[in-house]
Amino acid sequence: MSDYLERTNGGQSFTGSDVNIFRAIAIASALRFYAKTGMKVNRAYTPRNMLNAAAEMTGRKFKARDYIGAADALEALADAAKAAPRADAVQS
Fold first, then answer.
1. I need a surface site. Which of 17, 25, 50, 86 has the fewest CB within 10 A?
2. pTM of the full predicted structure?
3. Residue 34 domain-assigned (yes or no)
């Protein structure tokens, strides 16, 4: 479970490991979309930026245009993070 910060304007900012899981899944999805269609999901998600983010998160270096390989690595990272025991889990 993520922690969150209450904002004075009524909003919330989430922090913690779930944010990284969300980021990995979002970038993996955007990489697959770009590989399939050649279209960027937004202006910030250029192919180079997505591959750099994947390399930063996974610790692996990806070849240029290895979008599917990077997406697979990010999904594996997210799956491993979801399956890992959590410090905030209730033990019975």
1. 86
2. 0.80
3. yes
Segments forming the whole domain that contains residue 9: 3-83
Who contacts 7 (Cβ-Cβ below 8 Å, separation ≥6)? Answer: 13
Angstrom CA distances, 13 to 3, 64, 73, stand at 8, 34, 27
Residue 88 lies in a domain: no
Domain count, the chain: 1
pLDDT given at position 51: 97
DSSP letter assigned to residue 84? S
pLDDT at 87: 63
In angstroms, the first-to-last Cα distance of the chain is 17
Residue 89 lies in a domain: no
